[in-house]
Amino acid sequence: MNAVTEQSSAWIRRFQPAPAAGTRLVCFPHAGGSATFYLPVARSLAPAVDVLAIQYPGRQDRRTEPGIDDLHQLADLVAEELRAWQDRPVVYFGHSMGATLAFEVARRLQPEGLGPTALVASGRRAPSCYRPGAVHLGDDAHVVAELRKLSGTAGNLLDDDEVLQMIMPALRSDYRAVETYRYQPGPALSCPILMLTGDSDPEVTPAEARAWAVHTTAGFELQTFPGGHFYLNEQAPAVLAAMADYLHPESA
């Protein structure tokens, strides 16, 4: 069955509309990622969950737009878009850069009573855990080598010069956004946080994963899966099951 695509703005993709769902899940892509990364999530969780995926500028149908290389600015823009999607409880899910972005969007909307009922952070150290990074300063070969190390992009795509030319501007803006990001101290989130991580992810140590607990005044839970930074590709059934259980614990 083909997915039904419904687009409310350049920022929002609703691949499998579920108007009767009691919960909405907003998904934030990783650096270099696009909304279509979450198409399988939408197909798997509908109709019980209405899934939205954020489409950043600079990729796919937005490839002619300049990328946004400041994560705080990106969070401001996404928060503005999500104000229109408050007709039911909302949960945020973000992987890698998307986890930090989801956190920052939640911080912006929480004071207005529009924040998420829960935040699921995947493959990213807690915002308060700083690590220097300079991938965005390297040449194209350096960026590609980083992608190969993390196994986030299909190898055949990285060997295609035409594809690389298309995706490199977005990659660079995303890497600059996440590597220049600095956490600004402020109130913790009032919603619970579920942190998902791979047991061999070079980007997240166990301590950095647990540190998400300081960013909430509600409950914190950590789940670890086999795999590296993109463990969720290899462990998709288990991750989707964990998400379904978290979103609807009464049916687990």
From TrEMBL:
GO biological process: lipid biosynthetic process
Alphabetic keyword roster: Hydrolase
Stretches assigned to the Thioesterase TesA-like domain: 26-247
GO molecular function: hydrolase activity
Superkingdom, taxonomy of origin: Bacteria
Pfam families found in the cross-reference section: Thioesterase
Family: Belongs to the thioesterase family.
Protein's name in the database: Thioesterase
Species: Natronosporangium hydrolyticum
